[in-house]
Amino acid sequence: MMAKSSKKVMRAVGLAFLVVGAGLAIWGYQLSGSVGSQLTQVVTGSETDRVMTYYIAGAASFVVGLYLFFRK
Is 11 a member of any domain? Predict the structure, then answer.
């Protein structure tokens, strides 16, 4: 059984991961609107690697945060 203080720490870490994940996803969205990214999207038909990296890292961080925050 986990101590109460350890649970609080894990919830705080989970909350931090949630915030970082959301921030990375928002940052990726903002980058997708840049001129360079839009030009690449027109030429290749897909997002740039940098934008996709932010999306993937944000989603992964968010999922880990959800797990840590709601873990019993």
Answer: no
Supply the range of the domain harboring residue 52: 18-70
- Collapsing DSSP states into helix, strand and coil, what is residue 68? helix
The total number of structural domains that make up the chain: 1
> Residues 38-55: pLDDT tens digits?
888 788 877 788 889 999
The model's pTM is 0.81
Asked if residues 51 and 7 have their Cβ atoms less than 8 Å apart, the reply is no
4: tokens are 């109460």
- Structure tokens of 41? 């999207």
Distance CA(62)–CA(67), nearest Å, equals 9
Token pair recorded at residue 25: 């996803």
Residue 45 lies in a domain: yes
